[in-house]
UniProtKB/TrEMBL annotation:
It is a multi-pass membrane protein. The keyword Nucleotide-binding does not apply. This is MMPL family transporter. The chain crosses the membrane at residues 176-196, 208-231, 237-255, 282-304, 310-334, 366-390, 521-541, 553-574, 586-605, 643-663, 675-701. It comes from the Bacteria. It is found in: Cell membrane. InterPro entries: MMPL_dom (IPR004869), Mycobact_MmpL (IPR050545), P-loop_NTPase (IPR027417), SSD (IPR000731). Residues 208-333 form the SSD domain. Keywords: Cell membrane, Membrane, Transmembrane, Transmembrane helix. SUPFAM superfamilies: Multidrug efflux transporter AcrB transmembrane domain (SSF82866), P-loop containing nucleoside triphosphate hydrolases (SSF52540). Its main location: membrane.
Amino acid sequence: MSTLLYALGGWSYRNPWRVLASWLVLLVLAGGGVVLFQQGTDNTFSIPGTEAQEGLQELQRTFPEVSGTSAQIIVVAAAGDSVEDSPYPEDIAAAITEIEDMEGVIAVSDPYDDLVSGLISDDGSAALIRFQFEGQATDVSTETTDALYEITDALAAALPAGSEVAIGGDLFSTSLPALSIVELFGVLLALVVLIVTFRSFVVAGLPLITALLGVGLSMALIFVATAFATISSTTPMLALMLGLAVGIDYALFIISRQQDQVRSGVDPGEAAARATGTAGSAVVFAGITVLIALIGLSFAGIPFLTTMGIAAAVAVAIAVAISVTLTPAFLGFVKGRVAGWPVRKEEKTSGPTTNRWALLVTRHPIVTTVSVVAVLGALAIPAGSLTLALPNAGMLPEDSQARQNYDLVAENFGPGANGPLIMTGTIVTSTDPLTLMEDLADDIAQIPGVAEVALSTPNMTADTGIVQIVPETAPEDPATAELVRELRAQHDRLLEEYGVDLKVTGFTAIAIDISDQLGAALVPFGIFVVGLSLILLTIVFRSIWVPLKAAAGYLLSVLAAFGVVALVFEWGVFANLLHVTKTGPVISFMPIILMGVLFGLAMDYEVFLVSRMREDYVHLKRARGGHGDRDTALSAVRSGYTASARVVTAAAVIMFAVFAAFVPEGDTSIKPIALGLAAGIAVDAFLVRMTLVPAVMALLGEKAWWMPRWMHRVLPHFDIEGEAVERELSLADWPEPHTTAAVVAADLAVHAYGARPDQDIDLVHDVSLRLEDGDTLLVTGPTRATRALLLTIAGRLTPTGGRLRVAGHLLPERAAWVRTHVGVALLDAAEDPLAELAHALHGQCRIVVIDGLDRLDDARRDQAAALVRDAASSVTIIASTQHESAARALLAEAHRTDISTLTVSTHATPVAASAAQEENA
């Protein structure tokens, strides 16, 4: 990966206009797709397979009058008046007539109708006009909603002074998220941080440009996708927030690495390639972790949340792609100016000094660890009171009509009137449906938590009945959720007594089902995320304790972030300052989104911070003769922290600023998510990664990098630190600049691990060779050793020591290229050895390895010689043999006369040498 990114970064630097033009073309095409295909967002929430959803679908077939979206107008009489006195009935009747004539309206409930009850308050001070639309909220046109506002305003103007009129209901219960000037302050603060970090106005603008371009492209693609999928209005805002934050940070990491190298004297183009290969590798890894976590939102089994996760993942993927291509391209535009303002003379002479904070926390690791855990534990306490619900009109700003309607209904009719429940079932077997529905209503009205049964009636064909229930509590109140569960618990009793299979449904019940399913998904999702972090970090750092410490820190960060959200939205602390219009439950999918996003971002900081500590530990250990002790580990922690603290701090401040900017004026759905992410980033970056991590690493010492031997064998190797690039650069002139050698090796070793150190085997040990184009080499020795050497030269096995270059490509860094350009013929294992040999020789390969050349019988030897003879004279052949004379005879028959021989041996490695071999691996 790192070598591929190195090449990509160098190409992008040299071809900046091509890269920029390509991304701009994609942006224009996506923008055109928005104009042609976008259908708008859809805030209809549903969970297929739940009782509430099944009940709603049943109502759509049998009782459409109550299945669509609804709205309501509340009229509150002036002080001392009654809505039952003139002119209220007349003016309300006129408004009802206008509403009935509107397109899409299928039913209107007149509060003065003798057959309707519960729409006039007990004291006669308020009346409700309820009306039902065909279809869902997204099916109602903007013209219709505008007309409803006009009717409401006209009714308010016609009624006596002092009366109140407001429109609301399900149709108006959610608001479309919109950007405000406040979000711009987050971007401006990010710009200030970038200017301070890079010491350049020009360079500071580059991460912002790349991030904004990526966000623009991802937004366009999301709106194009509305033509094919249902996407909620929260989805683009979440993708915008994430894409902006990670886009700035990822470009920051790459530019910072390139700038450091330019200041140290490296050519800007070479520095851009190196930065993309090293920091870019970490960016790709970090981006992949965020992608996996976001796609993992599908654990909840809720379609709109899965879509939200995929859309946000697309935004992050685009941010990664732009970072590793457009960032080096922009560096190609600025060239040497990337160095920024000159470094002060005293900084040049003094050099880097150990960070004071790192010294403090590593000198007192126990006190630091206990203090951080205690602080985060205290922050997590409010999380125990966190309650979840889907957004409703009660969470809207107080100046909106829908919020005023919600509050007036709750005040005059009780809080449950804003979220009625519906029980529905088939009554086709009943001979007296009216009496049946009356009996059901009387029974259900006795259940605790039911304020009243507003309606209990069969449909026009008397095959389906509905019971409309008004709870005693508000839709988002946990007591309402308990009532839904109690009504469902009565299912069997009601079925036995009345013969009706009742389902509890309605939009309030659907919202409760979504919240319950999201809550149930948190634990498996948490296990998935934590398990993923353990696996990925174990692979990356080749350690047991580092991943455990990272996962524990992540859990502390998540709990603390939940606690901060609960502190503001449940307890009301700083609620007015942050413009929280109403304390209470937060949006249901906040916890799972927060867990997924914060996981990826926390892994960013863990990788950038701890990878530098590991790199320094390995270098210090080698400098001290392979001996790693506590002092070595402690020095590495301090030096690694010092080297990475500036960039990690800048990245964390930028992310905090971007997320925090969405809190004060943010949409009710985005606000708690933004606050949780801002708090989580601050806690994770500054308390966990930059305080707790160095303290715990100091406590662990050299044990931090311990891993069982069997895990070394099983786990793959991820090069996220750009080690392959660094090694290629250091060996660029080996064995000599622009070498012509087909194969060259020095002190080559291939290691096989045993169950114990004393069972380790060097399959290949201290092999040095050099072959030019057209040379022939016979390798003799034990079969395991000769085969291991040939497969290593062919890129199929990984060398564990020494140096190896094949066709100008260094191994193992360029193993993927070598595997496709070196022919392999394993004659022992082949069903048709001659076909195997022919395939290896007659391709485009300039180098061919042949295992078991002398294993052919006499009948096939002549044919094999003919195949070798027909190969181009410039093809380099490396063959293994147990019988050198037979192999030489075959090659001589094939007109290969200049043949060299190499003998290899296999032997057990002493215990003392095993550790060095393992580290080298």
